[in-house]
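Reviewers of the previous submission asked for a worked example of the structure-prediction workflow described in the proposal, so we include one complete record here. The input consisted solely of the amino acid sequence. No template or homolog information was supplied to the procedure at any stage.
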Amino acid sequence: MEPRQRREEGKRGGVVGRGARPNPQAKGGADHNETRRKLYATDPEYADKQRRAARDAYRKENPLGPSKLTNGLLLAGTQREVIAGDMDHPVTVVTYTIPEAARALGKSELTFKRWIQEDLMPEPILMDTTRGYRHYSAGEVTVMANVLARHEREFAYYTAKHELTKHALLQAVQGYRSTYI
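From that input alone, the workflow returned the following structure tokens.
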């Protein structure tokens, strides 16, 4: 008998196709998924473990390229006369405006300003004596670059969810400021 004839006879003869058969294991799988979802929602350690496993599996298939910041800053700063809030006289140092700092870190100006606005990046404390623009010192930008380069080894982006990076960035800049500014 030809395959086409067998198919036609199967339709007429009341033979049930493969898709219509009940799967006896389907119920057990649904229960297992429901259990995992509940565990994921209630156990933060389990959820974190699962997220890490998923991220590691994804990164194995889609590795990140090297960070732009591994060789240092992408733009040199400019020497300017600036003053900080508690200084009694201006000093001349290499500084970066906010747009310059963004370009030096390989980010867009809008992204960098959003990070400052969302407290993901510390605000600059140095002020230009001629125009009053806010500036970062070269050391602050270098410290930011180091923290962001470490972050970019694991993630392709930086958002408010990345609490560890946020705290590391703020602490690194505060540490630099307390020592040098």
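The mean pLDDT is 83. We consider this example representative of the routine output the project will generate in years two and three.
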